[in-house]
Every structure is written in structure tokens, then in C-alpha cells.
Design brief:
single chain; alpha/beta; Rossmann fold; 4-stranded parallel beta sheet; two-stranded antiparallel ribbon; globular
Length: 319
């Protein structure tokens, strides 16, 4: 394992950028954040999903896939307010952590943070003009961000915030595992008819457009942010493949790189008890079903054999 860099590398504020079904629950379970004393955690003990209110509003109003020009003024105002509220929640977490001399470590689905202008590009809508784009920009440090933004920043957050405050990790997983898993959970949670009617939402969730774009933003802005980690040779942005989470040495190295205590990393735990399960809603239990029932890494889930032809035939037989 590489040796640690000097402590001049700041602890910082970490974000694991994901899309649904990339084993992010497992990653955080392995890192054992409740026992990472350098990390300040949200009062709700949820290590992320601060942008869920904005995403939930998009779902309720069926905005994914809908051209901005078709949105009502009420929808635009409600989404902008929800975006600002989600961002403020993250800023509040960072502020409290810094008061205590600690870092933060959270995860988020990138599609929940995506700007409507970026969504327009994803769906092939006519490009939004600058006035439309700025409608959804959020405030940071009491000032609204500049109209000038790098296109590959597909979030509605300021370029400067992402470069100055965020230590980025991108968690990916093979699309042939990720996308069918996302479809199965959607079918279980919402029913087949809702999933079919919500094709645009599936496109919104089942794509690496968000991850690849934001990764490109960071790489092309490499000279503008501190790329140092606590392990020589490891620089931000860091990319983790879910398939490798069963590699104990690699997971410990990652923990060390981002300033966590590698000795606190765990690979076994107790399966969730009935009292814990009773506190969870139906959707959350379904989304976390594997990790809740497990007592360690299930290699069969991480490294499932990929045979595209078999998956195609299976899909056809169930049609």
C-alpha cells in the first residue's frame, strides 16, 4: 500500500457521486462512518440524500424528460426553491463540521443534482438560452453564481463550490448490472404500469451521462482544485468500481486516501434486526434489501457473471 502524504492535505468535504444501484450503501457500510471520528455526520444519521427533496418534487410533478419551455412558472419556482433548500442543507452540514474541526463524507445520486439545462441536453431538447439556465442557479456565500458555467458541470451547483469545497469520488458499476437492478426495484416499488409510463424517469436514472460529464468537468479543471489525497499517487477525482469493493486492501487504501481511519473499515456486521426494519418505509427496505439482510459482502452480487446474450433471452422470455 502506498504511504500517506503529509497532513497538509486537508480533510475536506467528500462527496461520492453515484447513480442508483451502484452499491453505494455497501461502500458506506464498509467505511463504517459512525466510527470514523474525523467525520461529522448529519443529525438524521443519513450520510447523504440531502438532494432528495428536490428529486421528490421532480418525481411528483413529472418533470424529468419534460422540456423546460413546458414547465409552469409555479413548477420552476418550486424546483428552484427545493434546489436551494437541498444545497443549504449540505452547506449547513459543512459549516457545523468546520466548527468542530471535522470533515464530512456523504453520497448523492447525480441525477438528483442535475440542472434542468443539463437534462435538456440528455433528452435532446432544444438548448436552453442563458436566461432559462440562470433561473435554476443557486446562491452560495450570499451571492448568485456567475452566468458563466462550464458545460460539463451538469449540477445546479456553482463551479467554484465544487472545485473549492468538494473532494469528489465517482462510484460506478457495470451498466449490465446497474440498469436491470434499477428496473427491478422500480417495478417492485411502483408497479409495471407506472414504470412503463415513466420511461423518461428511467432514462434520467439509468445513464452514466451525469457521472461522465461531471468527471470530465473535474479533469478539465484539474489546475483549479486541490487534487491531493492522503496516499501518494492517488489524486482526486477518485473513481471506484463497485466490483472492487470486495478487495479489502483496496477499500482500506481508499479509506486512508480520503482521510478516514483504515482500521475502522469493516467487512462483517450483524444483519438488520426486526426493530430496525420496522422503522423503515417500504421503498427504503426494498432499496436496501441486500445490505439489510447481509452480514458481509456478497460476492455474487458484486461480481455477478455478465452474459449479455443470456440477459437478452431472459428478458424476451418474460416479455
Amino acid at each position: 500500500m502506498a504511504t500517506a502524504q503529509s497532513c497538509s492535505a486537508p480533510l475536506g468535504h467528500h462527496m461520492v457521486f453515484t447513480i442508483p444501484r451502484t452499491a453505494s450503501h455497501l461502500l458506506l457500510k464498509l467505511l463504517n462512518l459512525p466510527q470514523q471520528h474525523s467525520v461529522y455526520r448529519h443529525s438524521n444519521n443519513q450520510d447523504g440524500y440531502m438532494f432528495l427533496p428536490a428529486a421528490a418534487l421532480r418525481f411528483r410533478q413529472s418533470l424529468p424528460g419534460k422540456a423546460i419551455q413546458e414547465w409552469s412558472e409555479e413548477e420552476k419556482t418550486a424546483l428552484k426553491d427545493a434546489m436551494q433548500g437541498s444545497f443549504d442543507d449540505w452547506l449547513g452540514l459543512i459549516e457545523e463540521a468546520e466548527k468542530q474541526g471535522k470533515s464530512t463524507f456523504v453520497k448523492e445520486h447525480l441525477n438528483w443534482m442535475a440542472s434542468p439545462a443539463a437534462e435538456a441536453r440528455l433528452y435532446g431538447h432544444q438548448k436552453s438560452n442563458s436566461s432559462t439556465t440562470t433561473q435554476f442557479q443557486v446562491h452560495w456565500k450570499t451571492q448568485q453564481i456567475s452566468d458563466s458555467r462550464k458545460q460539463d458541470n451538469i449540477t445546479y451547483l456553482p463551479d467554484a463550490f465544487l472545485l473549492q469545497e468538494v473532494k469528489p469520488t465517482f462510484l460506478i458499476r457495470h451498466p449490465a448490472l446497474t440498469f436491470p437492478s434499477c428496473l427491478r426495484t422500480a417495478m417492485d416499488n411502483e408497479g409495471a404500469s407506472s414504470v412503463i409510463d415513466g420511461e423518461k424517469i428511467q432514462q434520467w436514472e439509468c445513464t452514466y451521462f451525469w457521472s461522465l460529464s461531471l468527471y470530465t468537468f473535474y479533469i478539465e479543471s484539474a489546475a483549479e482544485f486541490d487534487r491531493r489525497s492522503f496516499v501518494d499517487g492517488v489524486k482526486y477525482p477518485i473513481v471506484l468500481d463497485a466490483q472492487d469493493l470486495g478487495d479489502e486492501a483496496l477499500v482500506r487504501k481508499y479509506a486512508k486516501a480520503v482521510g478516514l481511519d483504515e482500521e475502522k473499515v469493516r467487512f462483517t456486521w450483524k444483519a438488520a434486526e426486526e426493530t430496525e426494519l420496522a422503522r423503515l418505509g417500504k421503498v427504503e427496505k426494498r432499496m436496501k434489501s441486500t445490505i439489510l439482510a447481509s452480514s458481509g459482502i456478497e460476492e455474487g452480487k458484486l461480481n455477478a457473471a455478465l452474459d449479455i446474450e443470456i440477459q437478452r433471452l431472459t428478458k424476451r422470455s418474460k416479455a
